[in-house]
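Quick one, C-alpha cells below. Sequence please?
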C-alpha cells in the first residue's frame, strides 16, 4: 500500500513539473502590445488580439500597458487549439495573477479582436471590445470610419477537402465588422500574393456581422459572397509550404489589412 502511495506522489510531482514548464514562466521583455519574450528565449504571441504595430496609433501606449499588466505578477499561460504561429511563437492566453491579459488589453482599447474563430475566450473578447466601443477608450475612439480597427480577419480555411481545384468552395475566408457602424465594402478588393483579385459587389457589412467569401461559384447574399474565379483551377489560396498573403484594400486604394500564413511543408 505504501508503495502505491509513493508512486502516486511521484506521478503528481511529475505532473506539477510539466504544468510549471508548460504554463508558468518568467518574462524577459515586452516586444510590443501583443508579443512577449520569455527568459528561456522563447516568444509568446497573445491569442485572439492584435495590438498596433510600430508605425500605428497607440503603439507605445499598448506596449507600455502590457508591461504594466505583467510587472511584478505571477505569469501563467494557457494554450488553445494551436501551439505556435508561423514564426515559431507560442500562441497563448496570458494570465497575470488572475487577470486574463489578452482580454484586459481589448477592454481598455489597447488591442482589437483578431482571428477569433472558435477560440475558447471568443465571446469574452468580443464583449470586451463592445464595452470599449461604448466607452470610446483609446483605439475605440477611432472607429467612426470603416478602417482596420473595424474590419478584421476572423478565419481562413486555405485547405479544402480533397482536390482544391475540384472543391473551390471548400476554401473560404471570413471577415467581420467589429464596429457599431455599417461598412460599405462595394469595390473593395481582396488579393492574394499572385495578384488574383476579387472585387466586392454592392455590399454592406452590418455592425458586428461577418461575411464568408468562397473561392468557387454560388449566389451572393448578405452573409456569403462567391469569388467565381475563372481559369483551369477555381481554387485561390495556396496550401504549399510558401503559403499565401491576404490583402484587403478599400475602394480608395488604402490597405485595410494584410495577413500571411504558411501551408503544408
Amino acid at each position: 500500500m505504501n508503495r502505491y502511495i509513493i508512486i502516486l506522489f511521484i506521478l503528481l510531482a511529475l505532473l506539477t513539473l510539466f504544468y510549471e514548464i508548460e504554463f508558468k514562466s518568467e518574462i524577459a521583455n515586452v516586444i510590443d502590445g501583443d508579443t512577449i519574450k520569455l527568459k528561456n528565449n522563447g516568444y509568446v504571441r497573445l491569442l485572439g488580439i492584435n495590438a498596433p504595430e510600430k508605425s500605428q496609433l497607440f503603439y507605445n501606449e499598448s506596449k507600455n500597458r502590457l508591461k504594466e499588466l505583467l510587472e511584478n505578477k505571477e505569469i501563467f499561460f494557457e494554450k488553445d487549439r494551436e501551439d505556435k504561429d508561423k514564426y515559431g511563437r507560442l500562441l497563448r492566453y496570458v494570465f497575470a495573477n488572475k487577470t486574463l491579459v489578452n482580454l484586459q488589453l481589448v477592454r481598455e482599447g489597447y488591442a482589437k479582436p483578431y482571428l477569433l474563430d472558435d477560440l475558447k475566450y471568443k465571446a469574452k473578447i468580443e464583449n470586451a471590445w463592445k464595452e470599449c466601443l461604448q466607452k470610446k477608450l483609446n483605439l475605440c475612439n477611432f472607429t467612426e470610419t470603416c478602417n482596420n480597427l473595424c474590419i478584421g480577419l476572423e478565419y481562413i480555411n486555405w485547405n479544402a477537402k480533397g482536390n482544391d481545384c475540384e472543391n473551390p468552395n471548400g476554401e473560404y475566408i471570413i471577415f467581420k465588422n467589429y464596429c457599431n457602424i455599417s461598412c460599405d465594402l462595394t469595390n473593395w478588393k481582396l488579393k492574394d500574393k499572385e495578384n488574383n483579385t476579387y472585387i466586392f459587389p454592392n455590399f454592406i457589412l452590418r455592425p458586428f456581422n461577418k461575411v464568408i467569401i468562397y473561392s468557387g461559384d454560388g449566389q451572393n447574399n448578405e452573409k456569403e459572397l462567391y469569388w467565381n474565379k475563372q481559369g483551369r483551377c477555381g481554387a485561390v489560396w495556396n496550401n504549399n509550404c510558401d503559403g499565401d498573403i491576404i490583402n484587403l484594400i478599400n475602394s480608395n486604394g488604402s490597405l485595410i489589412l494584410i495577413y500571411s500564413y504558411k501551408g503544408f511543408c
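The mean pLDDT is 89. The first strand starts at residue 27 and ends at 32.
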